[in-house]
Amino acid sequence: MKKITLKRIYDEPSDKDGYRVLVDRLWPRGISKKDANLDEWNKEVAPSTALRKWFDHKEALFDEFTKLYCNELLTKKVELNRLRTIAKKNNITLLYGAKNVKINHAIILKDVLLEKMLNK
To answer: Could you state, in chain order, the average pLDDT of each consecutive group of 10 residues for the chain (120 residues)?
Structure first.
């Protein structure tokens, strides 16, 4: 598997990004589709609207959010496997809009894609 990296959508695109995937359900404010330089916008692997609103990026809820989001991802195995297939041939950058680089869903998604969480 090639490298899977995380990056805020607001950060400058780089040649090292490889396949760029926005993994947010909502389009990030202040970014044009042209400037985003995306290969894909994948809403399917983003947390549900209800889960995203409940979490609200509160650090105290991150552990519980991780469990709930992983449960949601259990139903997305086809999509996760498709992204893993891309990652076998290309570097992938998971792009997200959250301000906090330490507690966000992209961190969890990366671990799931690397099969550090969930059963295969």
So the answer is: 92 95 96 93 97 96 97 96 94 96 96 72
How do beta strands 4-8 and 19-22 pair?
Answer: unpaired
Paired sense of beta strands 40-41 and 92-96, if any? unpaired
Question: Does a structural domain hold residue 120?
Answer: no
Both structure tokens of 97: 């809009």
Handedness of CA 74, 67, 94, 99 (dihedral sign): positive
Q: Flag whether 40 is in a domain.
A: yes
CA distances from 42 to 58, 60, 79 (A): 24, 27, 9
Q: What is the pLDDT of residue 117?
A: 54
